[in-house]
Design brief:
- By secondary structure, chain A is mostly helical.
- Chain A contains 16 helices and four strands.
- Chain A has one domain: ABC transporter involved in vitamin B12 uptake, BtuC, CATH 1.10.3470.
- In chain A, the strands form two sheets. Chain A has a two-stranded antiparallel sheet with strand order 1-4. A two-stranded antiparallel sheet of chain A has the order 2-3.
- The longest helix of chain A is centred in the C-terminal third of the chain and has 27 residues.
- Chain A starts with 10 loop residues before the first helix and ends with a helix.
- Chain B has a domain of 175 residues: P-loop containing nucleotide triphosphate hydrolases (Rossmann fold).
- In chain B, strand 11 and strand 12 form a beta hairpin.
- Chain B starts with 5 loop residues before the first strand and ends with a helix.
- The model of chain B has no long low-confidence stretch (mean pLDDT 84).
- The chains are: A mainly alpha, B alpha/beta.
- At the A-B interface, helix 11, helix 12 and helix 16 of A face helix 2 and strand 8 of B.
- Chain A: Pfam families: BPD_transp_2.
- Chain A: One of its GO terms (cellular component) is plasma membrane.
- Chain A: This is Xylose transport system permease protein XylH.
Chain lengths: 365, 259
């Protein structure tokens, strides 16, 4: 019916040009692999699942921000430092200055999102690559974090947040556990193991669903919906695909990019707050290398480093692969340094595959 | 005589000490294709960017349908019915035809505070509009990168027409295309003109201009060398005006009249 020179596209090929495809295959492979080598090590028992589930959720939270920002055509290398900074801000305000925890959390969000906006503003106004601008902030924020923490408390680890957060409504939103009753019910039915000794005897080994996981799921769903279904999502693709072409048709590219920098900072602060609430302390060296891990998740998820193409679902699967492999090697009793070897390897593979897929979409040869 | 859709009077544009445009006058009528010819560096790009709201003129006036006007932004120009299709910046190759077609003006559905793109409507309108321009898309979700250069220009033209352009500015739409694609784009220009839209066709190819143009204006070193109607001027004369006269005439002699 159409042009005789267009070959009918096969379903396979159509599936190939979905950005998530690589990540879906990778996820299946990783699960099959660990079922084989660590299937009987407790990795797939409820505690085991909780273990790698939480780690994956942590990666997913920062990957969603990094993903949308990368699709909008920019990078943020200051994510890791932002995590350390946000945590220390919360701890100093709540423990050292005696603010209520909820107010400290809000303050940390305001400061960090404003810093994200500053990042974006500098990138837009100077026209410099975001790589350089955010690299500067990687150092600035890390330095400020250590300095602030030593200045106020003379140490780089600030504890006591757990006690301060007792009964705080906002703290629960980040450090709490939901569906406790449901999990208890599972345990009563015998679906979940229970503790047999100690103060928690009779309680299920997995207490409930940590809010960290809830945040990760919510951010992934929100990010995916925003990107694929909304007008703003179309503008994110357009800003990263070709900023000038997008401007010519009236897309507010600068606004889109600055908002994405702010969203990345927001995700980093969510990560930091959950971590502070879980550990009950903040440390100035938290979040080290997280910016690169977020970018790796995003790239495994099929996004192009040059922007304009990618998927939040893919990035989330990238985070899952990351978490499963990191914890799986531990369960399998493998040398943990091998994790980095694996990471480097999978990164190269993902980038090669993405480049190939890009050629398929655009019909380049 | 009816008023022109857009009228530019003695437009000057200076960039610091450089005078990019030194008093250019130009207008386009309804249903007309007015060709703006000029060699590289003649000021064509500056002139269309002034018309489409990217630059503000240093001197001179602009009128849209007889009303004097200044544009603050490209969006402003678009809202006044002036659409520009740029040579390489028309489309984003990695995005689908539909997403490109609606970029910046996505149709939306809403439920409570949630608003999302109405992809059913977006896809069907895109398919229809493309079919009207003579291109049958395999599927509206296919990436623009899979289309040929001529088809990409056509998507951009269809988009401008659908969104109610009164004046369509085409920046060298044929310069990177092969023979067959060029004739397709020229046919599209003709179709658009017949629907009452004023087309401004920027090119440095005299033959392409002669194929569809009603009037011809030559721009050289930031100035116009007058406007001629179809049939009043020969291709060789246009060529000479564009190149600034004699040198080319001499060259042409030695090349045996191939330019």
């Amino acid at each position: 019916m159409t042009d005789e020179r267009l070959k009918q596209v096969s379903t396979l090929r159509r599936a190939m040009i979905r950005p998530e495809l690589g990540a879906i295959c990778g996820t299946i492979l990783v699960f099959v692999f660990f079922f084989m080598i660590a299937g009987d090590s407790g990795m797939f028992s409820p505690e085991g699942v909780q273990n790698w589930g939480v780690v994956s959720a942590q990666f997913a939270i920062i990957a969603v921000g990094a993903c949308l920002l990368m699709i909008a055509g920019e990078f943020d290398l200051s994510v890791g430092s932002m995590i350390g900074f946000a945590g220390v801000v919360i701890a100093i305000l709540s423990v050292h200055m005696g603010w209520p925890v909820w107010l400290s959390i809000i303050a940390a969000f305001v400061v960090c999102v404003a810093l994200g906006a500053l990042n974006g503003f500098l990138v837009i106004k100077t026209g410099l690559p975001s790589f350089i601008v955010t690299l500067a902030f990687l150092y600035i924020l890390r330095g400020l974090t250590i300095w602030l923490s030593i200045l106020t408390t003379r140490q780089t680890i600030i504890g006591g947040v757990k006690e301060a957060a007792e009964g705080d409504p906002l703290a629960f939103l980040f450090g709490g556990v939901i569906f406790k009753d449901l999990f208890q019910w599972f345990a009563d039915l015998g679906l979940l193991d229970t503790f047999t000794r100690g103060s928690r005897a009779g309680q299920p080994v997995v207490e409930g669903l940590p809010m960290l996981v809830v945040w990760a799921l919510a951010l992934v769903i929100f990010g995916h919906w925003l990107l694929t279904k909304t007008r703003f999502g179309n503008w994110i693709f357009a800003s990263g695909g070709d900023a000038q072409a997008a401007r010519y048709v009236g897309v507010p590219v600068n606004r889109v990019k600055i908002l994405m920098f702010m969203f990345t900072a927001f995700c980093a602060t969510v990560f930091a707050t959950c971590q502070v609430m879980e550990f009950g302390s903040a440390a100035a060296d938290r979040g080290l290398l997280k910016e690169f891990e977020a970018i790796i998740c995003v790239v495994i998820g099929g996004a192009l480093l040059t922007g304009g193409y990618g998927s939040v679902i893919g990035a989330a699967l990238g985070a899952l692969i990351f978490g499963v492999v990191q914890q799986g090697l531990f369960f399998a009793g493998a040398e943990s340094s091998l994790f980095r070897v694996f990471l480097g390897g999978i990164l190269i593979l993902a980038v090669i595959m993405n480049t190939y897929i890009r050629r398929m979409i655009t019909g380049e040869r | 005589m009816s008023t022109p859709l857009i009228e530019m009077n003695n437009i000057e544009k200076h960039f610091g000490p450089v005078i990019a445009l030194g008093g250019v006058s130009f207008d386009v009528m309804e249903g007309e294709c007015h060709c703006l010819l000029g060699d590289n560096g003649a000021g064509k790009s500056t002139f269309i960017k002034t018309m489409s709201g990217v630059h503000k003129p240093t001197k001179g006036t602009m009128k849209v349908s007889g009303q004097e006007i200044t544009f603050d932004s490209p969006r402003d120009a678009m809202e006044n019915g002036i659409a520009t299709v740029y040579q390489d910046l028309a489309m984003i190759p990695l995005m689908s035809v539909t997403r490109n077609f609606w970029m910046g003006r996505e149709p939306r559905k809403s439920f409570g505070p949630f608003k999302w793109i109405d992809f059913d409507q977006a896809n069907s309108v895109t398919l229809n509009e493309m079919a009207r321009m003579g291109i049958n898309l395999r599927e509206p979700e296919q990436a623009v990168g899979t289309l040929s250069g001529g088809e990409r220009q056509t998507v951009a033209i269809a988009r401008a027409v659908y969104f109610g352009a009164k004046v369509l500015i085409l920046d060298e739409p044929t310069s990177a295309l092969g023979v067959r694609q060029t004739s397709n784009v020229l046919a599209t220009i003709d179709r658009v003109r017949k629907s009452g839209i004023g087309v401004i066709f920027i090119t440095h190819n005299v033959r392409h201009a002669m194929a569809v143009g009603d009037r011809f204006t030559v721009l050289n070193r930031g100035q116009t060398h007058g406007t001629a109607k179809r049939g009043e001027i020969k291709p060789e004369e246009l060529q000479d005006l564009m190149a600034g006269g004699q040198e080319l005439a001499e060259l042409e002699g030695s090349l045996g009249g191939t330019i």
